[in-house]
Amino acid sequence: MADEKKGVIFAVFTYMIWGVLPIYWKQVDHVGSDEILAARVFWAFWLTIAFIFLVGGHKQLLADIKDLWASKKKFFTLMLASLFISTNWFLYIYAVTNDRIVETSLGYYINPLMSMLVGAIVLKEKLVPAVKVSFGLAAIGVAVLTISYGSLPWLALGMAFSFTVYGYIKKTIKLNALGGLAVETLFVLPFAVAYYIYLFSIDRVAFLQIGITTDILLVISGLVTAVPLLLFALGAPLIPLYMIGFLQYIAPSLMLVIGVVLYGEPFDMIDLISFSFIWSALILFTLSKVVEARDIRRAKKAGSV
């Protein structure tokens, strides 16, 4: 029980950090989203590598890289995953720095439902009736927003889809969180460096040009990427999967409150109706997973008797 409590604490801190990150990204909204992404990739790689060497994990990292290189399928599959997570980071940063934090919360609310949909389509996983109803409720919520906006909430759907595909790919390749982050950022590091060189060449770079505060914030972008992943890596193995599914709603809930209360983003009756459908879908979805996990535990206990 002590381990489970520790796992819950780590997971809660993880999702709380992710939930309040819009406040951090707002501090650099005077920097282009493209440069913020390049900085996040660049500094996340070097800070992660430094930490891995500090804790003596470099031998395992080298072994993981050799293993990936030995299997070209794994190598290029993880490269694809790095492209999807980079896309997710860009859409998220773009949304936050362009006053669309509420839309980011929508994206991360519908992400678990989209993950289950991909599982049903790609892995042929069977969907229980409650999950099917959840999809229907979420679809109504997105449809209401689409009619209200006059177009699809493409940022939210793009974030949900890119993270869903990233998560699906990561399930097929077993790497620890820090090692995985190091390798994934290594794949896109050359692009980040090349893009920074390009920005310097056209005199459109913020790093080392605006002020020390901006420079520090851009460097710290690597830290705020790595720290929650480390906490998640420590906490996730200690708690049941259904509990992770429940706790993950902390992040988009905080994003929604921050967007509306702290930054005054619009949230009218249409938004409330749409989100209500999605919240109902998530409640039903989560309850179905809790019941499923309980039934599995009971079956295991019965089998061990």
TrEMBL record:
It is found in: Cell membrane. GO terms for cellular component: plasma membrane. It comes from the Bacteria. The chain crosses the membrane at residues 7-25, 37-55, 75-94, 106-123, 130-147, 153-169, 181-200, 206-234, 241-263, 269-291. InterPro entries: EamA_dom, EmrE-like, RarD. Residues 6-146 form the EamA domain. It is a multi-pass membrane protein. Keywords: Cell membrane, Membrane, Transmembrane, Transmembrane helix, Transport. NCBIfam families: rarD. Belongs to the EamA transporter family. This is EamA family transporter RarD. It comes from Planococcus salinus.
